[in-house]
Specification:
The complex is a heterodimer of chains A (241) and B (86).
Chain A lengths: L6 H25 L3 H70 L2 E4 L7 E5 L1 H24 L54 H38 L2
Helix pairs in contact in A: 1-2
Chain B lengths: L5 E5 L5 E11 L6 E10 L5 E11 L2 E5 L4 H15 L2
Antiparallel strand pairs in B: 1-2, 2-3, 3-4, 4-5
The chains are: A mainly alpha (241), B alpha+beta (86).
Chain lengths: 241, 86
């Protein structure tokens, strides 16, 4: 059936037309004088009326069914839309939860392409140890910050014998890669390549300077005396003393 | 795998990936800081794939840089070994 077709109006027009036909036929039947003829026409008329009524009822039923189908479709559409809205709401709420969760996470922005990020393959056992020790170190660091202890610079461990290959994945847990520098340098370190003399202590420098000062004084006095002596000798010669 | 600190790594094209932090590393001179993280990837032999980047704070934005210097990369490996042997 075509949509947007006014079946109600068509039905009314059909009924009106049939009503006119009924009136016309009834007049004709009433005008029939022959009783048998009249009875026959009357029977035919009744049959035609029954057929017409049946057709009209069928049309009405179809029309009603179409209307009810539209209503059902609308209701289904409403139901589908409400379900979709519910799904959207749930998705939005999930997304919001994820976004809220992500908003709480700190973002680090990669400044290179993904294929240039440094990576390494680590055996799972080593990976677990690194994670465990990292958490322990973090706990220790928090304790150190609490007590405000300063690290001794001489306590740096030596890593001279550390394996320098590029594969982090080697299991070196059992290797003693550290040696504590127990024999700390004593005295003054002299660099042979620079031929530096041993630095004098401040005390020694002070005494040397005083000695030098004293020596200079004596030298100056000595020169002054010698000069005076020469002057006197000149004066004696001059006056023939 | 234990669940540790989670962060978001944003790639240059804007894609965001949630990753798990393995550890942070500080260079001996405390001039450089590095982050070690994992995306939960494992090799067929069971090895865990970890990613290491240098951290730099620029204009209140934390950026991750690749380590291009060989000696610096070796130093980072040593730092990791330190933790593994702690």
């Amino acid at each position: 059936m075509r949509k947007n077709y006014n079946y109600r109006e068509s039905l009314n027009n059909i009924k009106a037309g049939l009503f006119d036909i009924y009136e016309e036929q009834e007049k004709l039947i009433n005008l029939e004088t022959d009783i048998d003829e009249k009875k026959s026409k009357s029977n035919d008329y009744e049959k035609l009326k029954a057929i017409a009524v049946t057709l009209i009822e069928k049309i009405e039923k179809l029309h009603e069914e179409e209307n009810s189908l539209d209503i059902d479709n609308n209701q289904d559409q409403v139901a589908v839309e409400s379900d979709y809205a519910d799904e959207e709401e749930s998705e939005i709420s999930i997304e919001n939860n994820v976004e809220e969760k992500n908003e709480n996470l700190k973002k680090y922005y990669l400044n290179c392409s993904l294929d240039k990020v440094n990576y390494a393959y680590v055996p799972e056992s080593i990976y677990k140890i690194i994670k465990k020790n990292s958490s322990l170190l973090n706990d220790e660091k928090n304790e150190e910050d609490f007590f405000e202890e300063e690290m001794d610079e001489d306590d740096t461990t030596s890593i001279d014998d550390v394996d320098t290959d590029n594969n982090v994945g080697e299991e070196e847990k059992d290797l003693n890669i550290y040696k504590d520098d127990d024999e700390k340098p004593r005295g003054i370190i002299v660099r042979n390549d620079q031929y530096m003399k041993l630095a004098l202590s401040k005390h020694r420098q002070k005494s040397v300077l005083e000695e030098a000062k004293e020596f200079r004084k004596k030298e100056v006095l000595k020169k002054q005396r010698e000069e005076q002596k020469r002057e006197l000798e000149k004066a004696e010669l001059k006056f023939d003393i | 795998m234990d669940t540790g600190e989670k962060i978001i790594v944003v790639s240059p094209d804007g894609e965001e990936n949630e990753v798990e932090v393995v550890t942070y590393l500080n260079s001996k001179d405390s001039m450089n800081q590095y982050i070690v993280y994992t995306k939960g990837e494992t090799q067929s032999n069971g090895d865990v794939v970890i990613y290491i980047s240098k951290i730099k704070e620029e204009d209140d934005v934390t950026k991750l840089y690749e380590i291009v210097d060989d000696s610096e990369w070796k130093d980072v490996q040593k730092l990791l070994k330190e933790i593994a042997n702690a």
